[in-house]
Design brief:
Blueprint lengths: L22 H6 L11 E6 L5 E5 L3 E5 L4 E3 L3 E3 L12 E3 H11 L6 E5 L3 H12 L3 E7 L8 H9 L4 E3 L1 E7 L6 E6 L12 E3 L3 E4 L3 E3 L2 H6 L3 E4 L4 E4 L12 E3 L9 H18 L4 H18 L6 H12 L5
Parallel strand pairs: 4-17, 6-13, 7-8, 7-13, 8-9
Antiparallel strand pairs: 1-2, 2-3, 5-14, 10-11, 11-12, 15-16
The structure holds flavin-adenine dinucleotide.
Length: about 325
């Protein structure tokens, strides 16, 4: 959230219209029961329920909670093409970190790969920072992002080329240009359609995958569901995994949006509290209202892919 300087979309109930960087403070308002340990990483998760953690550089310690909610987010996917290891090829998260956290521009002319929400929003933020965005290329036949964001970019004069991909990044010590090409219906490059663009940054925004390192370490069952970002942990409707004391929430449970992550966090927290003997009527009300909220967030054509993914998760058994 610290990188998201734009105003959120969605409904007011889920903080639409508020800048991402301001949402964490809203969530923590009047909250004195949660102890926050920043700069602390969980590095191990063991069968006896012990988690190992490190704070700062060298203070290691153990925690043995009664229940755990893993909300470790997602990591960026990468693409294979010649020149993808040249300086100047970035993931969109890195570009956001440079610009929105450190106030540093990544270069002068950018080619964005991916027209999902992230590719489109980061392109717009680049424009706002005075950077030239040469084009956004998208392999799918349609723009995946909300059209309200894509329109802002188009109005800024940035071409969004669907059914296109990057073929190569060129340069000696760093990116100096990139070759793009059109794709046919089988996602193969159409020979002769290659075009070379003069850019010094190639930014990849080609999707996210849930971060499952700790869940894999402890042996949570998982299933490969492309609609949810790849391998996702198996969980029930209350977000409990195949291990009785472990819950998941947010992008770790399946890549969606911050609004879903916030509701899922509340749901998993209430379910874990109920399992530990908290007031079951109160917990039941929270769980029911969160489930209704998730159904509404996933309604309509925008939520179709996610609904299909969740149906696969709930409908079938899962891989060990
Ligand atoms: C450019 C961009 C624009 C977006 N715009 C919107 C929008 O307008 N509206 C919307 O609803 N969504 C938006 N999203 C999506 C939204 O940001 C994510 O869905 C949301 O942040 C997921 O929340 P999360 O808590 O699951 O994961 P994250 O926000 O990724 O948080 C996970 C946290 O866990 C920490 N962590 C990971 N591993 C460990 C560990 N081992 N120990 C301790 N901590 C750990 C990480 O450091 C991180 O702080 C956008 C995303 C991007 C990239």
């Amino acid at each position: 959230m610290v990188k998201q300087t734009h105003k959120f979309f969605g409904s007011r109930e889920h903080h639409a219209g508020v800048r991402g960087i301001d949402i964490p403070n809203l969530l923590l308002e009047n909250q004195d029961k949660v102890k926050i340990m920043s700069n602390t990483t969980i590095i191990g998760c063991y069968e006896d329920g012990v988690l190992t953690a490190v704070t700062g550089e060298d203070h290691y310690f153990k925690i043995k909670p009664q229940r755990v909610v893993f909300a470790t987010g997602a990591s960026e996917k990468f693409l294979a093409f010649p020149g993808n290891d040249l300086p100047g090829v970035y993931g969109a998260g890195a570009v956001q970190t440079l610009m929105n956290q450190y106030g540093v521009v990544p270069g002068k002319r950018v080619l964005m790969i991916g027209a999902g929400n992230i590719g489109i929003i980061v392109s717009y933020q680049l424009l706002q920072a005075g950077i030239h965005v040469a084009a956004v290329v998208e392999a799918a036949p349609n723009i995946g992002a909300y059209l309200v964001h894509a329109s802002k970019l188009a109005r800024g004069g940035v071409p969004i080329l669907t059914r296109h991909t990057i073929v190569e990044a060129k340069g000696t010590d760093s990116v100096q240009s990139a070759v793009i090409a059109q794709l046919d219906e089988d996602w193969q490059v159409i020979p002769g359609t290659e075009k070379e663009l003069e850019v010094d940054v190639v930014c990849l925004a080609v999707g996210l995958s849930p971060v499952l390192d700790l869940l894999s370490q402890i042996g949570c069952r998982r299933k490969f569901i492309p609609e949810l970002g790849g391998d996702v942990p198996f969980r029930d409707k209350q977000l409990k995994t195949s291990i009785d004391w472990i819950y998941v929430a947010g992008d770790t449970a399946g890549v969606e949006e911050a609004s879903v992550a916030m509701v899922e966090g509340r749901l998993a927290g209430a379910a874990a509290a109920a399992q530990l003997g908290a007031d079951s009527t109160e917990a039941g009300k929270i769980i029911a209202s969160c489930q209704a909220s998730l159904d509404s967030l996933r309604r309509g054509p925008v939520g179709a892919k996610i609904r299909a993914g969740i149906a696969k998760l709930e409908g079938g058994c899962c891989n060990a």
